[in-house]
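Title: [Solved] Large-conductance mechanosensitive channel 3D structure

Original question kept below for reference.
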Amino acid sequence: MLKEFKEFAIKGNVLDLAVGVIIGGAFGKIVTSMVNDIIMPIIGALTGGINFTYLKFVIKEAHGDVPAVTFNYGNFIQNVIDFLIVSFSIFLFIKIINRFKSEKKEEEVIEEIKLSEEVLLLQEIRDLLKSKEDSIG
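Solution (posted by the thread starter after getting help):
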């Protein structure tokens, strides 16, 4: 059982997943900072200084020690905007990575074509040499 676990833990997919989770967490912090510190202040300025996080609808007013009952739709709007920005950022990031991968694949295909041309040429030379040996011997 220990051997199986070791094989599972060392597999490339598990390590790739672990690296992806760590990078994803760091990337999430960067995007959250971008949303909170750059994009939302701009949106707030465009909407007259509205901070979505504090938007709420009061269902029942506070009375004495009893707090108000509120429907906090602003926080929901903020989270939806965060999600859309994070999703779009990840989409762009994956698109860039895929572009690099496709460029690499094109280079590999070109190398394979060159290699196959060389192999064909060597095969032709081999066949010519073989036919000369057959005609001599």
